[in-house]
Amino acid sequence: MSEGPQASVKPRRNVLAWALVCAALAGVAAVLYIIVQASTKPAPVVHTEEAAAAPKSDFAAKLVTPKAPTPPPDYVFYDASGKAMKIADLKGKVVVMNVWATWCAPCKIEMPTLAKLAAEFKGKPVAVVPISIDTPEAAANARLFIAQNGPLDFYHDREMKLPFKIGAAGAPTTVIYGRDGLEVARVAGEADWSGPEAKALIDKALAAD
After folding, report:
1. CA dist 148 → 66, 108, 111 (Å)
2. pTM of this prediction?
3. Strand blocks (E) in the chain
4. Rounded to the nearest 5°, which phi and psi values hold at 99?
5. Are 185 and 203 in contact (CB under 8 A)?
6. How far is residue 113's CA from residue 103's CA, in Å, rounded to a whole number?
7. What does each C-alpha distance from 123 to 14, 118, 120, 199, 205 come to in angstroms?
8. Which DSSP letter does residue 56 get?
9. What's the whole-number mean pLDDT along residues 117-142?
10. Longest distance between any two alpha carbons in the chain, whole Å
């Protein structure tokens, strides 16, 4: 007995069902492939100027080097014994001249680090010279403060004009002079003079001809 048209419909339905199943499996496989590729492929690296440029340290950001060799000012200040002297008198040494005052909080904060720098280079041709720009009336307090920060010695600018003579914007300002008596670099503002960057700066000045 013939099954008629309904017999031919069933095979077509089976073929269509299998086609749909295959298509679904193919789709799942494609999605899985994309996921695996995305998880194993490294993310693209975007290079920008900000990312390429390493941020400067606080010390490096404040460090300035002169465009031309600059001699120290022909200006008199006084040592602890009251003897008049000039920076030029220290030629042959690397001079770390620091302008400070007792009324300057950042000056007093960084002074112990200058003391550590002086101790680090003790016995070498390096002179750390903190010059107070306090008034004559306040000089006694300035002397006492320096005594608490050995091995530093006391120096005093009685006329309080040194910042103008070296073109300093304020205190503290530290100027480094090479052994030839010319300015190597300067730092405006408080700095850590006990750190590796400060030591490297002095080592470089010592090594220069």
Report:
1. 33, 11, 10
2. 0.74
3. 63-64, 77-79, 84-85, 94-100, 126-132, 155-156, 173-177, 183-188
4. -95, 120
5. no
6. 18
7. 99, 10, 9, 15, 16
8. P
9. 98
10. 136
| Contact by Cβ (8 Å): 116, 123 | no
- Is the Cβ–Cβ distance between 58 and 198 less than 8 Å? no
Structure tokens at 208: 């220069």
Write the single-letter amino acid at 159.
Answer: E
Asked whether 90 and 129 are in contact (CB, 8 A), the reply is yes
Is the per-residue pLDDT at 11 higher than 90?
no
Which of residues 28 and 88 earns the better pLDDT score? 88
- Distant-in-sequence, close-in-space partners of 33: CB < 8 Å, separation ≥ 6: none
Which pLDDT tens digit goes with each residue over 149-186?
999 999 999 999 999 999 998 999 999 999 999 999 99
Between 84 and 26, the more confident residue is: 84
Looking at 55-158, list the stretches that DSSP marks H as alpha helix, in order from N- to C-terminal side. 58-62, 105-120, 139-147
Indicate whether 2 pLDDT > 90: no
| Structure tokens given for 182 | 């010319």
Which pairs count as long-range contacts for 160-163, CB under 8 Å and 24+ apart, including other chains?
160/133, 160/134, 160/135, 161/75, 162/73, 162/75, 162/77, 162/99, 162/131, 162/133, 163/99, 163/133
Spatial contact of 87 and 73, defined as CB atoms under 8 Å apart:
yes
